[in-house]
Request: fold
Amino acid sequence: MKKYEILDHTADIRIKVYGKNLENLFASCASALFDFLVKCPPKKNIKKEIYLEAENYEDLLVFWLNELISSFYAYHFLPGQYKIKLSDSGNKKILNAVVAGTDFNPYDNKIDKEIKAATYHGLKIEQTDNGYAAEIIFDV
Reply:
């Protein structure tokens, strides 16, 4: 199964991402994001835990990707491996993740495409015959 494909968009990056389940979909979205951001493969010598809550999976996906973007720019954390657990708690969707990655040195490595944020514009998550798919636009 392919992880993602690039869709047409006039100014930003629009992609359709695939996953066999929701956890795999969230990991594939993160991998696609960093495929655009940098071209250097990360080591996996640092672990970071992330806990997020939202009212639905669309919100949770945007929160997740924007948390990763923030960690990259603020703390120079380049993720490379994602262990994600999604759960429901009443009216909340919960993400618990352990992300393995490395320190990104902007002086040694080049940022390929500067991505500002994951957006809600055109965002959708849907169940497919092969699992799940999400369409998302990154603001560049």
